[in-house]
Amino acid sequence: MNYFGRKGFLVILTLLVFIGLWQAYVSLFHIPVQILPGPALFVSKFLKILTMGDMGTHIGITLYEIFIGFLIGCVTGLGFGYLLAKSVLLERLFNPYIVLIQIAPKISIAPLFLLWFGLGATSKIALVILVVFFPIMVNTIVGIRSVEKNMQDLLQILKANRWQRFWTVEIPFSLPSIMSGVKVSTTYAITGAVIGEMIGAKAGLGYLVILGSETYDINMILTAVLLLSVIGLLLYMLSDRLEKRLLRWHESQELIM
């Protein structure tokens, strides 16, 4: 059995053990189905909820908020990170305010965004941008400043212009750090979208969590949470795949291989 075969076998085995423990817990302690249904019952309810006419709309709205917010957050984070990395003055001017906004609890900022942008997707996108921006910016700064001094001296000797330095040195040196920020930001993006939808929304998976809580529908809550987890896993796997393709030359990928 090759590496990928063993890895797949272990994943399936872990899932089966989890399902077995779940069923044992429900059966031994006689947990009411309103609190936690058994695996078989949940699967049947899950499939039924998935076939609801508006489930595709809820999933699509959440994906839209995550994708747009993540894209804008990455672009702005990269831009600001590069500017702050190249200018100590700009970093001293803006960094305290950026950190202040970042450390503010997002669940307390979400109501403000709802007041400013309404119950639609815009307020959730703004929240996703906010949570994605900071890790991308910080990792970009770290990456740009990781360029070795010997390399910088060599570029000066070769009289490389700003554009040549950017493409031939700064991008390759900063890419590992940036991709680490991208992978972390995928999970933050989902959290931001869900927080916004749970505070106030007309649709979305976060909205279904709140709806299930208000109607005491544990199956709807578990379905929304499971779908969000799957989306998060897929996004992380995509970012990890992108990292491997972009950093095939980097020593970190050689260690993985």
UniProtKB/TrEMBL annotation:
It is a multi-pass membrane protein. The chain crosses the membrane at residues 61-85, 97-119, 125-144, 188-212, 218-238. Coiled coil: none annotated. InterPro entries: MetI-like, MetI-like_sf. It is found in: Cell membrane. GO terms for biological process: transmembrane transport. SUPFAM superfamilies: MetI-like. Residues 59-239 form the ABC transmembrane type-1 domain. Belongs to the binding-protein-dependent transport system permease family. The keyword Nucleus does not apply. This is ABC transporter permease subunit. It comes from Paenibacillus foliorum. It comes from the Bacteria. GO terms for cellular component: plasma membrane. Keywords: Cell membrane, Membrane, Transmembrane, Transmembrane helix, Transport.
